[in-house]
Design a protein that fits this description.
eight-stranded mixed β-sheet; alpha+beta; 60s Ribosomal Protein L30, Chain: A
Length: 465
Amino acid sequence: MPETPTQRPATQPPTIPAGEFRDHAVDRIELLPIHGFPEVRPGDDVAAEIARLAPWLRDDDVLIVTSKIISKSEGRLIVVDAEDPAVREEVRQAAIESETVRVVARRGLLRIVETRHGLVMAAAGVDASNVNTDEIALLPLDPDASARRLRDRLRALLGVTVGIVISDSMGRPWRAGIVDNAIGVAGLTALHDVRGATDKHGNVLAVTEVAIADELAAAGDLVKGKLGGVPVAVVRGLTLTDDPIGSRSLFRGSVDDMFRLGTVEAMAVGREDAGGATVTPGRLHADAVELITEMAGSEGAAGAQRAMQQAFLAFLAARPDATSRTCVAGHITASAIVVDPSKQAVLLTLHPRVGMWVQVGGHCEPGDMSLLDAAAREAREESGIGSLSIDPTPLALDVHAITCSLGVPTRHFDVQFLALAPAGALAVISDESLDLQWFPWDRLPANSGPELPWLLEAARARLGG
């Protein structure tokens, strides 16, 4: 599996003279609220309501759509069958837990977490505001797919080609107050890369990437607000360029994230780094031991998997640094078989080092607190799919020899999970892959990884055929 996947280029772009580079700024924009929106309930056609209330939409308009109405229309609501506020809060906390992949920081009941989408936010976006008193709202399952569906439906209803930004409010480190950010994007470029351009003084811009979709989300909130019942705004005055990657370019990969760890996690990783293999194993090591100990393996290869299980546990017992890629003898990795919503095809990546089609996955990184966390992060980064439902019980274990980023022969002790893509998911190739494609179960490419047939058999058994 690719070793350090990222949606960002590995090298700096070439220098581009200022006169040959198009800036993102425009002369003028308009912010237009769409008034009169009714209460949205599950199954409602949000696009039809927008078309009814705003038949004046034009090509290149950008609609800023509050995520709550998308969640409501898609039925992402939990009904609390009790009037006791304590019960409602208990249900909300359970919902946060179910939507969380990794806890970044905690203070009392407040949790800053990474969601299944890859978003880092308070309470996993689980919200009890602007819904009925017996309901709790979750974020849309796949906001990019929701944005694409809304865009396509408006094109069919009004004959216009617009951009869509699905927004949600977030707090910010080191700054008071919340700001709306983009969590779903369709029909526009979310991140404008200005690196390599020169300013009017001749200086080369080395790090500047402008989060256009976030700026649009924040601008739209100036006319939407939080209490006025205006869930949709229009930003007019831009010329749009479609980018199929959606909101994924806004996500900072773990390799580039200098603030990935919460305080407690950072201190633990620091202690481990200082002591190397001589210190007590860290949290990820402990999670690997617990997870692999509890694995049952599939009935079809129970004996082989039990033997593999013991090999993994022996390696973990011998090497406190087994989950670190710096362990030359070998190291634990995490991968995932991504299955499409119809359960008829799997997503495979063409690995640049081994030249074979394999499942997505790779090394554990600092800040991964569990193998499930590592598998979810790798799967999102390499598939480009923001929201994957990952079975927390691994499918299988496999050991394979490889020369990875260490540059010397080593072994990957791979823990393999099952992930299900949501409806409408759009896979986007990463820079660390030669190709990325869906393949039917029974028509795998000739140069696929040798473990794939058995792994797919285990996945089909887990899915019930």
